[in-house]
Amino acid sequence: MTRRFLLVGLTGGLASGKSTVSEALRRLGCVVIDADVLAREVVEPGEPALADVVTEFGREVLGPDGVLDRKRLGTLVFGDPDKRRRLEAITHPRIRARFTRRLEELTGQDFDGIVVFDAAVMIESGGYRDMDRLIVVVTDAETQHVRALQRDGNREDVERRIASQMPLADKARLADYVVDNSGDRAATLAEVQRVHRALLADLQARQKTGR
User: Fold this and answer.
1) Distance CA 101, CA 98 (A)
2) Mind listing the domains of the chain with CATH numbers?
3) Tell me, what DSSP letter sits at residue 182?
4) pLDDT mean over 67-71
5) What is the pTM of this model?
6) What percent of the chain has pLDDT over 70?
7) What does the angle CA 37 – CA 41 – CA 47 come to, to the nearest 5 degrees?
8) What is the DSSP annotation of 96-121?
């Protein structure tokens, strides 16, 4: 069955403001599939991926209640490319499977709007190539660091996480649309509305050509 919706990738970097853009697009009527939500689902208690994570990294990544301590696991794998690859090998196939099922559901419902896949490592994983359009959220380096510190509070951890990610400028070069989130919220929302109008035009063009 051919899908009628426009599939849009949304990505950025740590504290770039991707969540703000994602929520704004949701409010504008887009269906948003959040990779982080899928990532949480695949490691819930009882899921095979959680057992694999414990086998790979030890029971210390679990909290007292048996739930994955994502912050502890993140501290363990960020800054260590080998450990991060091992974690991704466990979780990414399960995340992709859930994502594919959701797209199949929307196709079966004959949904004909805009679907946004919100994923932090979409470019690094190569998943951006499967999108019809790609949005990258950017901000300047100073703002990114300040926002990340306000949110996470640990300078060393913030620096390690930012260094482990692909530079925002490199991501932006692959984008169909860039949202600059360096200013205030009103300016960002105006940027999102601009991009949303362009996406609606892209969707209409797709539906006219049937591709």
Assistant:
1) 5
2) 6-209 (3.40.50.300)
3) S
4) 94
5) 0.90
6) 97
7) 165
8) HHHHHHHHHHHHHTT--SEEEEE-TT
DSSP lists the bridge partners of residue 177 as 135
For 81, other C-beta atoms within 10 Å of its C-beta total 10
pLDDT at residue 211, rounded to an integer = 59
**Is the CB of residue 65 less than 8 Å from the CB of residue 99?**
no
- Which residues does 202 contact at the CB level (< 8 Å), separation at least 6? 6, 132, 133
DSSP type of residue 133: E
In single-letter form, the type of residue at position 92 comes to: H
pLDDT single digits (tens) 152-203: 667 777 777 777 778 889 999 999 999 999 889 999 999 999 999 999 999 9
Return the percent helix, strand and coil in the chain, to nearest 5: 60, 15, 25
Any bridge partners for residue 33, and if so which?
Answer: 117
User: Token match 């950025």: residue?
Assistant: 12
* Position 45, amino acid: P
